[in-house]
Amino acid sequence: MLFLGVDGGQSRTTAFIADERGRVLGSGAAGPCNHVGGPEGRAKFLNAIRGALQEACAQAGLQAPAISFRAACLGLSGGAHDKDALVRELIRAEEYVVTDDAVIALAGATAGGPGIIAIAGTGSISLGRNAAGKRARAGGWGYVFGDDGGAFDLTRQALRSILQLEEGWGRKTALLPMLLQATGAQSANELMHRMYTSEFPRPRIASMATLVDEAARQGDRVAAELLMRAAQELATIAGAVRAQLFNDGERARVAHVGGVFRSEMLRGRFCELVTLNGNVDVGPPIFGPAAGALLEAFGAAGIAASLTDVPTEKAYPLPDGVL
Q1: 120 or 323, greater pLDDT
Q2: CA pair distance 141, 82, nearest whole angstrom
């Protein structure tokens, strides 16, 4: 029996093939497959899935056209509602699970077991699943109404602090000269106005969150407080998921994922906060999302698998490597 797990993301598509014992036989990668609108998007999606699958089959010594999987799980960026039929055109399987990338990210992070994933890249979200299979989420409401503790929000709060300084009621901070130098703006006022233009899309604004971490490491108190506040917000949404899924005193695993957690100061405070109530194991994800998709495929077949020979995945979905 063979099982297939696919992570179809905004930057790349990764496929893992495993045998019935959970041993990964082959892996493959191809381009992004997050859109299927129009003929061009549909072709891009099919080519990405096909390319990743063919590479994984070649590595495993299998002939792609002849394979029928016991179960296949595909976690796809942008959701699955418009992709299920296309998946079935490409892949033969007894059981199909076509879902979104958050589900496989959680499954990989906790190795298919109960737990919580706290994701902080450009934005932020926390997801969880308990032993009964119940799922819950908190955050992930976008940069206008949510994404607290994410990189975009960190940069936004840094800009607020220098605007307050400009107006005479903020504290002195190294963030002002650092942000001006990074953007070429001559003043906080000019910088703020430029942030509303197409010159500064959200990913570019989020990428400047690295300056907050840099300033904090150099001893800037305003920047350090912004990191501490972000850690608190991320711990709060993870705690909200825990409260929905786990009883008081019940042990839970919390995995932190995403570029924001590259900040040692923020990560340390986050870990400290989520363990305050005890019975929490906190750390990086056990596996990546493609392995998570593979575990979901085993689950669809009613098999509790332990994966072996799992390749290191090059990137994680949803978070952006901004710190």
Answers
A1: 120
A2: 22
DSSP string, 3-50: EEEEEE-SS-EEEEEEETTSBEEEEEEE-------HHHHHHHHHHHHH
pLDDT of residue 35: 64
Provide the pLDDT for residue 147.
Answer: 83
Give per-residue pLDDT as tens, 253-308.
999 998 899 999 999 999 999 998 788 889 999 999 999 999 999 999 999 889 99
Residue % of the chain over a pLDDT of 70: 94
Structure tokens at 257: 């994922």
Q: What b/e readout covers 112-144, taking b as 16+ CB neighbours within 10 angstroms? A: bebbbbbbbbbbbbbbbbbeeeeebbbbbeeee
Mean predicted lDDT score pLDDT of the chain = 87
- SS3 for 302? coil
Q: Which CATH number is correct for 2-111+286-300, 3.30.930.10, 3.30.420.40, 3.90.226.10, 3.40.640.10?
A: 3.30.420.40
Q: Is the pLDDT of residue 215 over 50?
A: yes
103-to-91, 100, 130, 252 alpha-carbon distances in Å? 20, 6, 13, 17
We find that the CATH architecture of domain 114-284 is 2-Layer Sandwich (3.30)
Q: Which residues, listed in sequence order, are joined to residue 138 by a DSSP beta bridge?
A: 126
Picking from 90, 19, 24, the residue whose alpha carbon sits closest to that of residue 59 is 24
| Structure tokens given for 104 | 């496989």
Q: Buried (b) or exposed (e) across 262-298, using 16+ Cβ within 10 A? A: ebebbbebbbebbeeeeebebeebbbbbbbbbbbbbb
What is the SS3 assignment for 137? strand
Q: Cα–Cα distances in Å, from 201 out to 185, 188, 205, 208, 287?
A: 16, 18, 6, 12, 31
Return the SS3 of 172: coil
